[in-house]
Amino acid sequence: MMTREKWVVTTKKADFNKMAERFHISPMLARIIRNRDVITEQEMDFYLNGTLEEMHAPRLMHGMEQGAECLLSAIREGRHIRIIGDYDVDGVCASYILKRGMERLGGRISVAIPHRVTDGYGLNIHLIEEAYQDGVDMIVTCDNGISAATEISAAKEKGMSVIVTDHHEVPYEETDGERRELLPPADVIIDPKQQACTYPFKGICGALVAYKLVQMMWELAGEDASVLLRELLEFAAIATVCDVMDLLDENRVAVKYGLSYMADSANLGLRTLIDACGLLDAKITGYHLGFVIGPCLNATGRLDTAMKALALFDTTDAREACVLAAELKEMNESRKAMTEKGVADAIRQVEECGYEKDDVLVIYLKECHESIAGIIAGRLKEKYYKPVFVLTDGENGIKGSGRSIEGYSMYEGLHEVEELLDKYGGHKMAAGLSLSPANLAEFRRRINEQSKLTEDDFVQKIRIDIPMPLPYASMQFAEELALLEPFGNGNHKPLFAQKNLKVHNCMVRGKNKNVAGFVLEDESGYRVNGIYFGEAETFAAQVKENGNRINITYYPDINEFRGNRSLQIVVTHYNFMQ
Fold first, then answer.
1. Which of 453, 476, 501 represents a domain boundary (last residue)?
2. Cα–Cα 20 to 30 A to 527, which of 85, 94, 377, 465?
3. Based on the domain organization, do 447 and 539 belong to the same domain?
4. Which residue from 24, 60, 14 is spatially nearest to 45, judged by alpha carbons?
5. 321-346 pLDDT per residue, tens
6. Do the beta carbons of residue 180 and residue 146 sit within 8 Å?
7. Which residues contact 136 (CB under 8 A, 6 or more apart)?
8. Residue 448 lies in a domain
9. Is the pLDDT reported for residue 1 higher than 60?
10. What is the reported pTM?
């Protein structure tokens, strides 16, 4: 089943020549920036030149100042503070940021990160009981807690204070069309998604919320945090990319500066992991965070315990850092193999059971390791362009993860069938859930029955910035595009398009036959090298079958090999002249 595509040219209006003159850029670059909903001159200046000092003040977030004061009081009184994080990259980075920031203020800090299999996501009664037995006075959550009302009540009954720092959607109940938030009974709640919060940008990850809290604490303590915040920003940047936050507003600034600091990171563990991944001499980009470094950090929480990733960030011993980094990389290789098998099993189930007709794919892989369910769901979403839930057997029933498409909110979809679920949480594009095996068939039926998706929702929109002839995609223009970095969710690489090109000398290469190299020629005779990453053999066969005439979406790139630099056109999508 091929994903259906619709190529759409973005046509947002502005005086591109004036913008170009004001910011010393080309009119084409000005148009691309405007396409990212950057409208005013002030917004464009922030997009191109935003600094850390221009990020939003922490105190603008509801509960931030109160939470910082509570934590500072606890630190001064020598109370035992326990951070309870999450087992993904965002949770680990948030835990490290809070731990490092509070320990440097003299705090007595311990950390607990739930085990994905035995504990599940976020707070649970076992972790609350463990904290109580360890003499913990105050619990501070990061990247979780907003939906843990029962667990927080239990902690309060045992005399512990609780501060929630989170970024997930707030649970709610709906009566007569009106929503009422169901906030947990914590002493302080810091979550930009809550109604009472008027923070200017709500799309930040859990680690950036934690970063802001450390910033607030040090400000109230009257201490200079400049060196510390530089170090911690790297971890907020990693989490922002790996949690697939939009690289807009202050997220863009945090990632841009965080990436620049990583070239000379002060953190031994992170430096060692970068080295283990073969990136020590590379210019680290958002791609490397999302697809190289992040998966290694995630692998430990998937196949073992995320405390190992935290230990890597914490260590000051070079030998221990090498051992931990190697272990994380090895676990990620194992995870890749498990994922490939899971994806193949899931595709076979879709085809054999006739699920292609469903609006929402609900796949039950009984023996799949639950830690990779979300990755498999993401791969199926890309293949079928439909919302996907991948479920498997957990310790107490069925557990799983979902990944969504543009037209469907995972969280809202789960909320509509919450009576079938034991637990759920997440946001529009991703969610986690658990349910009884007895409810599986009904869950599949109801989640499809109530999807409200239309045929148009299943057509993936490929958004083109500019229909641009190949000669305009010069080396100089490719270099100018670097001003738009970092690229990622919400700030994708610019995409251009041209019709009616000839393809010459198409060759499939790469160990996995996943790269096609060729020469592109336009109607004027202009030629340039091209490359396609993906199902290269299929690409080459289709080119031959369709007479070498092709329409493409693309971006220009600079290929560097043995000291030589040359322009190449990276083809991202294609179809053929009719």
1. 453
2. 465
3. no
4. 24
5. 999 999 999 999 888 889 999 999 99
6. no
7. 80, 81, 82, 110, 160
8. yes
9. no
10. 0.88
